[in-house]
Amino acid sequence: MDHEADSHRTDLMTITRYVLNEQSRHPESRGDFTILLSHIVLGCKFVCTAVNKAGLAKLIGLAGETNVQGEEQKKLDVLSNEVFIKALVSSGRTCILVSEEDEEATIVEPSKRGRYCVVFDPLDGSSNIDCGVSIGTIFGIYMVKDGGEPTLDNVLRPGKNMLAAGYCMYGSSCTLVLSTGTGVNGFTLDPSLGEFILTHPNIKIPKKGKIYSVNEGNTKNWDAPTTKYVEQCKFPKDGSSPKSLRYIGSMVADVHRTLLYGGIFLYPADKKSPNGKLRVLYEVFPMSFLMEQAGGQAFTGKQRALDLVPKNIHERSPIFLGSYDDVEEIKALYAAEEK
Ligand code: FDP
Fold it and tell me: What distance in Å separates the CA atoms of residue 62 and residue 76, rounded to the nearest whole number?
């Protein structure tokens, strides 16, 4: 009998145990973060179950449609948003919530307020729901600034000020990837236990990758550095093999692959969308935070992504993120363009 393998099977590092271990390294900690995270995890488990049942339960219909019983059906992204908002408010640990689904930020009522601000996209990649492609939840967490009423200034801050960031991917398995600022860890939901178990400890992105990931349908609208970069991926000048193209069109799935296999994910600016498509607070920042924590880089075409200071909660930015060396190449092309 392989005792070592057996001990791994029976000594389960759940996400809660992992975060409690981290917490014990900070004796001053009150356990608030652990409580907040357990509410985020609850939201992820709920959405995972709803996504898995979606085809059967007819959750996919348009928001506002009525089902045969005459009840109004909720679209999966609307339902996911409600679940996360309720879970986060009831944690008693949040004061401001920014969701992709809501025009305005939610300011938590005083009796339920805590110290954390959570920015999130409850169900990213929703155009992929109907065909069963992987989708996910993305989140970032800030600590409220000291004193006074919680205001939007608390979230209109650079991504480097986030305390933690992560995503949960609803795919062939349900995987939660988290960074609390000391590296990146991946946890997979064991459906029989209902627990996320540490399956990908200390994720490091390869220094250079063999894959580029972009919506090439937008080529005619790209700027010169992006066009040149993608050309270099296909026709490398240094004699190396061309990179492979992989594009799912669901950010969580494309970024997850990039994190594990290396390479680069691009959603650049183009003539039609000068600020790109992806949202700074709950797409660009959390994914950039994870990339840097895993040893990669994230760049906007102008600056380090995590240095950006958003002016409004739903602001967009171009983004190039992934393996360190691959992002260096696109940075060099933008630098050359500026000269
Ligand atoms: P979706 O429109 O399906 O919600 O920001 C949303 C997003 O998906 C990302 O998940 C994805 O990376 C991107 O948009 C895909 O955009 P394109 O269809 O323009 O490639």
Answer: 9
| CA 247 to ligand 1: nearest atom | 20
Cα 188 versus chain centre, distance: 16
Closest-lying ligand 1 atom to the alpha carbon of residue 249: 15
CA–CA distance, 310 with 141 (Å, rounded to integer) = 15
- Please, what is the Cα angle at 197 between 194 and 203, to 5 degrees? 145
- Which token pair is 154? 């608390």
Ligand 1 atom at shortest distance from the alpha carbon of 283: 5
How does pLDDT run across 48-91, given as a tens digit for each residue? 999 988 776 665 655 555 545 444 556 888 999 999 999 999 99
CB atoms within 10 A of CB 85: 21
Phi, psi of 143, deg, nearest 5: -90, 135
Compute the distance between CA of residue 234 and CA of residue 247 in angstroms, rounded to an integer: 15
CA–CA separation, 61 and 212 (whole Å): 33
pTM here?
0.93
Distance between Cα 261 and ligand 1 center (Å): 21
Question: Please, which residues have CB within 8 angstroms of residue 5's CB and are 6 or more apart in sequence?
Answer: none
Give me ligand 1 centre to Cα 266, in Å: 12
Measured CA to CA, the distance from residue 45 to residue 74 in angstroms comes to: 18
**What pLDDT is attached to residue 65?**
57
Q: How far is the CA of 93 from the centre of ligand 1 (A)?
A: 31
Cβ-based neighbours of 320, under 8 Å, separated by 6 or more: 264, 265, 266, 268, 298, 299, 300, 301, 327, 330
Strand order in the sheet with 185-190: 106-107, 94-99, 113-124, 135-143, 164-170, 174-179, 185-190, 195-200
pLDDT band at 250 (very low <50, low <70, confident <90, very high): very high
Left, alpha or beta for 92 (phi > 0: left; psi -120 to 50: alpha)?
A: left
**Amino acid in the structure at residue 268:** P
